[in-house]
Write a structure and sequence with these properties.
FAD/NAD-bd_sf; flavoprotein; eight-stranded mixed β-sheet; single chain; alpha+beta; RIFMO-like; about 30% helix; FAD
């Protein structure tokens, strides 16, 4: 019996599958499509997304292929409202965000999956799935069935897994239908800049893509008109581009249309069925958060599910998956929805806020830094979750349990230097004494042993780069491990059987 089946071979599903395979879990990947996508809507790989890919060994040469660091220029009625730098690195130890196609990211993930021994079953449309107490049964459109231990639904906004689980997907469309196309054109503008033009109620964005003259064009469809398709979409976008820049499209790679939605699943789990990525939440593409949020879901879920499959943790650990990731999705939905309404709203209030209030603020360096930091997702913290430390007694200053640990330079036991995040995924890392490393390995399996620790405090770092536990007492670490995976033995709790109260 397969341990985990991942439904959906997009960025979220492939990230989950690669992370699980790396942890030694038996994984199958199925997708209804006939093969890999050749076109994509997602473009932005944020620093957080790059870290996820690096930890699962799929980053490869993507940083050298994308456009790293970019400007944003907004022009309204012929006047430049905004000219800001938004794609720079937010910290010296993290990569800059970059513009790169989802197609390239998926290819890198498929390569990693193949290297790990995984395969993708294309043309495998899921017709239904039923969760039982100790397994799940998948039924495919060709009538075949499969029994598995767990199912990860990464099958997008119209998720069959979510529907079969009876999980609601509440929300609503935000705005009208949007047109987009990838085109070859000499715009006559810098290739390190995203451009947006407002002309009355009309809007057009031009986003540079890797390649000599490739751009992504996007605009809302005119209200009240017939819904455009194919060549008509490219023609309409070309007319708006010509009006804004005088440039003419030479060739069209692809064109499509979509409605911006704001939706989130009522819950992320139903028995043996789990949701991630667009199957759990969808939102506006403004800010380039969707793909990165989905990959973050996948990484968080994978290391927890791996511990359960390996028999190292109780099923209740999966409760922490939704508890940690749902607030992230809710925050992204809120921010992107507001930004979308502000950018594309046609009301006098929206226009006034954009031109009179927001534009001057965005021109300030402080706001630019804050916007870049927020988009990076490096500020994501799980400190308020069930594995975190907020609300618990005696939290030390500095990083607390649940915070992202910077990708600091560390030293292995043999004296060689290594970046912390390079030791993570699928394993953990412990910066501290050998005795604590041995204890962690007994409970968690693969734990990298690193030297250091401030003021005698050790740090146990999770596979996703967040701080698990910090302290100095073995009994306290044992107590945190019990909270993570369930009590193992009473002897693991220390000499007197009681956990220490002063460490996280």
């Amino acid at each position: 019996m397969t341990q985990v089946t991942v439904v959906g071979a997009g960025p979220t599903g492939l990230t989950a599958a690669a992370a699980l395979l790396a942890a030694g879990v038996d994984v199958s990947v199925v997708d209804a499509a006939p093969g890999p996508a050749t076109t994509s809507r997602a473009l932005g790989l944020q620093p957080r997304g790059a870290e996820v890919l690096n930890r699962i060994g799929a980053l490869a040469n993507l940083p050298s292929r994308g456009l790293a660091g970019w400007n944003l220029v907004v022009v309204a009625d012929g006047q430049t409202l905004i000219h800001s730098r938004v794609g720079t690195s937010v910290t010296a130890e993290a990569q800059s965000g970059q513009l790169i196609s989802q197609v390239d990211i998926e290819a890198a993930l498929r390569d990693r999956l193949a290297w790990l021994g995984g395969t993708i079953e294309w043309n495998r449309r899921l017709a239904g799935v039923v969760s039982h107490e100790d397994q799940a049964k998948l039924t495919f459109s060709d009538g075949t069935e499969r029994i598995v231990e767990w199912v990860v639904g990464a099958d997008g906004a119209h998720s069959t897994v979510r529907a079969a689980a009876g999980i609601g997907f509440r929300g609503a469309p935000l705005l009208e239908r949007f047109l987009l196309a990838d085109v070859h054109v000499d715009v006559g503008r810098a290739r390190d800049t995203i451009y947006a033009w407002f002309d009355g109620a009309r809007f057009l964005a031009a986003i540079p893509l890797p390649g000599a003259d490739l751009w992504r064009l996007m605009a809302p469809e005119d209200e009240g008109g017939a819904e455009l398709e194919g060549d008509d979409i490219a023609e309409r976008l070309g007319q708006q581009l010509a009006a804004a820049t005088g440039a003419s499209i030479r060739a069209v790679q692809w064109a499509s249309a979509f409605h911006i939605q704001r939706r989130i699943a009522d819950r992320y789990r139903s028995g043996r069925l789990l949701l991630a990525g667009d199957a759990a939440h969808i939102h506006s593409p403004v800010g380039g958060q969707g793909m990165n949020t989905g990959m973050g879901d996948a990484e968080n879920l994978a290391w927890k599910l791996a511990l359960i499959v390996q028999g190292r943790a109780e099923h209740r650990l999966l409760d922490s998956y939704e508890a940690e990731r749902r607030p992230v999705a809710e925050g992204v939905l809120e921010i992107t929805s507001r930004a979308t309404m502000l950018a594309f709203g046609h009301t006098m209030m929206a226009t006034t806020l954009r031109d009179i209030v927001v534009a001057p603020l965005v021109r300030t360096r402080w706001v630019q830094r804050r916007a870049t930091q927020a988009m990076s997702q490096l500020d994501v913290s799980y400190s308020r979750g069930p594995l975190g430390s907020v609300g618990r007694l005696s939290c030390p200053r500095g990083l607390v349990a649940g915070d992202r640990v910077p990708n600091r330079l560390c030293t292995r036991r043999d004296g060689t230097a290594v970046r912390l995040h390079d030791t993570l995924g699928p394993g953990w890392a412990l910066i501290g004494t050998e005795a604590l490393v041995d204890m962690a390995r007994e409970r968690l399996g693969d734990v990298a042993s690193l030297r250091g620790g401030a003021r005698g405090n050790a740090m146990l770092v999770r596979p996703d780069g967040h701080l698990g536990w910090r302290g100095s007492r073995p009994a306290a670490m044992s107590d945190w491990l019990d909270r993570l995976s369930g009590p193992r033995t009473s002897s693991a709790r220390g000499g007197d059987g009681r956990p220490a109260a002063r460490d996280i």
